[in-house]
């Protein structure tokens, strides 16, 4: 079982690491000191479980859990907190369990068993319907923004980032255009080495006065350049839209 530990207290993280070592069959893939770090760690490592403190600076545990609910595959969340006043909110956030500090080994073992049951159900569901991400995750002034894929108009590579042009503006994500094309090839089509466009956004092609082909989009103020090597494939794609 892959686990992310998120707690702003180093001693609390160390105690959880120690208990997990004793439990066996656990790999701690990352640690985080706040909700933002936890979300990044989950996006990178796709853990089975997040042990999540509630009272953390910036994005707290409850808000982080609400974001994690949109992840695919969704990790199990077990809250570890010094207070029991948030129990109702925790379960509204679809937490698997709620542990009060100091966490006892037997309570953690029970929570891990619940997580294994949750993970087994998730795997059965994945076999029936393969999971796919429904959102992209963008860094925004120390926090994160989840962008629904349905809102994305086009993706444009710029140095080591990709600019996501979407219904509510623009955001940067730290993913490669190639990996996005591999993952979402049914949703986006390449029109240039640095640009993927949502298939439903393209309304047609036109030539500019210089003879270059451009793609006209529903929600872009200006048409986008189509590279010569992409023109033929794009014309074929448009036949089936």
Brief descriptors of the model:
single chain, 241 residues, alpha/beta, 5-stranded parallel sheet, 5-stranded antiparallel sheet, 7 helices, 15 strands, elongated
Draw up the topology in text.
Layout: E1 2-6, H1 10-23, E2 27-32, H2 35-45, E3 49-52, H3 61-68, E4 76-81, H4 87-92, E5 97-100, H5 105-128, E6 135-140, E7 143-148, E8 152-158, E9 161-166, E10 169-173, H6 177-183, E11 188-192, E12 195-198, E13 202-207, E14 213-217, E15 224-225, H7 228-239
Parallel strand pairs: 1-2, 1-3, 3-4, 4-5
Antiparallel strand pairs: 6-7, 8-9, 8-12, 9-10, 11-12, 13-14, 14-15
Helix pairs in contact: 2-3
Description of the molecule:
With 241 residues, this protein is an alpha/beta fold. It has seven helices and 15 strands. A five-stranded parallel β-sheet has the order 2-1-3-4-5, sandwiched between helices. A five-stranded antiparallel β-sheet has the order 10-9-8-12-11. It has a three-stranded antiparallel β-sheet with strand order 13-14-15, covered by helices on one side. Helix 2 packs parallel to helix 3 (61-68). The two termini are 42 Å apart. The mean pLDDT is 88.
């Amino acid at each position: 079982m892959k686990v992310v530990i998120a707690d702003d207290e180093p001693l609390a993280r160390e105690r959880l690491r120690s208990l997990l070592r004793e439990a066996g069959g656990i790999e701690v893939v990352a640690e985080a000191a706040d909700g933002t770090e936890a979300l990044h760690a989950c996006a990178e490592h796709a853990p089975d479980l997040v042990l999540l403190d509630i009272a953390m600076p910036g994005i707290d545990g409850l808000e982080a859990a609400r974001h994690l609910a949109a992840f695919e595959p969704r990790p199990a969340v077990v809250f570890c907190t010094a207070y029991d006043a948030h129990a109702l909110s925790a379960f509204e956030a679809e937490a698997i369990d709620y542990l009060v500090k100091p966490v006892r080994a037997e309570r953690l073992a029970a929570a891990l068993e619940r997580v294994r049951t949750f993970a087994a159900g998730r795997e059965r569901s994945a076999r029936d319907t393969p999971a796919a991400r429904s959102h992209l995750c963008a860094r925004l002034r120390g926090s994160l923004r989840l962008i629904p894929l349905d809102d994305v108009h086009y993706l444009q590579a710029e140095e080591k980032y990709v600019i996501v042009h979407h219904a509510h503006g623009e955001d940067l994500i730290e993913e490669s255009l190639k990996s996005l094309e591999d993952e979402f090839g049914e949703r986006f089509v390449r029109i240039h080495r640095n640009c993927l466009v949502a298939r439903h956004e393209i309304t047609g092609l036109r030539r500019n006065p210089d003879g270059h082909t451009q793609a006209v989009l529903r929600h872009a103020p200006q048409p986008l350049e189509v590279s010569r090597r992409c023109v033929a494939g794009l014309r074929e794609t448009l036949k089936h839209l």
